[in-house]
């Protein structure tokens, strides 16, 4: 392997990792506060990608399209939480899994009805559709650097909010003891709606950023959700710090595994990583209570 290929694939792995973190962080937020297993979380990733592609075609402004896609995805998440998921808060996990699997099918068919069965391809405006030299004359796509930078900034922002603010205190309290929030006189339903909306918005952000480098199509959320769930398990359920560390690790292992290993082992390298880590630390790398 040449140095240039190593650097390029490292950047690819980091970019994939921060995208996984955005999805895993939203899932962690929802599960940690609401104790809700939402397997339809990947659908918000798909919705964000479709909304971004549609808005970009209309307005032509990248950042405006990203912002609107994130806001609309968060609104859809809040609406879904109020209308469909609220009755499942205190239901067994199996009921939650079955209900959210049904939502996956619903959203996949809805996107086919609205946008058609053919994948959407996104054409980026201006400099975002180019490459720039990064290290030792190696050129790298600008959009992938943007994804990497945005992912790191969002991770830093989430850390500051959760660790340093009153809102973060409520998130941590809700993750460990939901009755504590109610005892403070805070509207628990409002906290749940906000948490679900933010989680959906984070997944929508990942979808909007991934749309320019992937084909936007119905069902695109399922495969990435599997990786996000692996990230949550490896990092430690309910841990944002663990989610970030595990996302970077999974992104790098998957990228280099597919490059260096035979196809069979490359495809399962992430699963082998999960098995190895869980055999060593069953609670994950950075459990929420650790």
UniProtKB/TrEMBL annotation:
Sorted alphabetically, the keyword list is: Amino-acid transport, Cell membrane, Membrane, Transmembrane, Transmembrane helix, Transport
Q: Where is the signal peptide?
A: none
Source taxon at top rank: Bacteria
- Assign the protein's first listed, main location to one coarse class: membrane
Transmembrane region(s): 12-32, 62-85, 97-115, 135-162, 183-213, 225-252, 259-280
Give compartment(s): Cell membrane
Q: How does it sit in the membrane?
A: Multi-pass membrane protein
GO terms for MF: transmembrane transporter activity
Could you state one GO biological process linked to this protein?
A: amino acid transport
Recorded hits in Pfam families, A to Z, give:
BPD_transp_2 (PF02653)
GO CC, alphabetical: plasma membrane
Q: Which family does it belong to?
A: Belongs to the binding-protein-dependent transport system permease family. LivHM subfamily.
Full protein name: Branched-chain amino acid transport system permease protein
Organism of provenance: Eoetvoesiella caeni
Q: What is the lineage of its organism?
A: Bacteria, Pseudomonadati, Pseudomonadota, Betaproteobacteria, Burkholderiales
């Amino acid at each position: 392997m040449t140095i240039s290929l190593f650097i390029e694939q490292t950047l690819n792995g980091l970019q994939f990792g921060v995208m996984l973190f955005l999805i895993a962080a939203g899932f962690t937020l929802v599960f940690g506060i609401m104790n809700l297993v939402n397997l339809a979380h990947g659908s918000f990733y798909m919705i964000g990608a479709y909304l971004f592609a549609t808005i970009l075609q209309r307005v032509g402004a990248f950042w405006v399209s990203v912002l609107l896609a994130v806001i609309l995805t968060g609104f859809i998440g809040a609406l879904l939480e109020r209308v469909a998921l609220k009755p499942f808060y205190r239901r067994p996990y199996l009921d939650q899994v079955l209900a959210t699997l049904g939502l996956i099918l619903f959203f996949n068919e809805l996107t086919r009805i609205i946008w058609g069965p053919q994948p959407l391809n996104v054409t980026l405006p201006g400099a975002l559709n180019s490459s720039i030299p990064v290290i030792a004359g190696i050129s790298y796509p600008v959009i992938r650097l943007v994804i990497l930078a945005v992912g790191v900034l969002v991770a830093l922002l989430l850390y500051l909010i959760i660790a340093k603010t009153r809102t973060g205190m409520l998130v941590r309290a809700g993750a460990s003891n939901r009755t504590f929030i109610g005892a403070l006189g805070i509207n628990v339903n409002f906290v749940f709606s906000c948490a679900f909306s933010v989680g959906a918005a984070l997944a929508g952000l990942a979808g909007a950023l991934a749309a320019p480098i992937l084909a936007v199509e119905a069902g695109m959320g399922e495969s990435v959700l599997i990786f996000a769930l692996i990230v949550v398990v490896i990092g430690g359920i309910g841990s944002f710090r663990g989610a970030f560390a595990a996302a970077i690790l999974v992104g790098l292992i998957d990228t280099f595994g597919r490059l260096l290993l035979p196809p069979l082992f490359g495809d399962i390298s992430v699963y082998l990583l999960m098995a190895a880590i869980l055999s060593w630390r069953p609670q994950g790398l950075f459990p929420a209570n650790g």
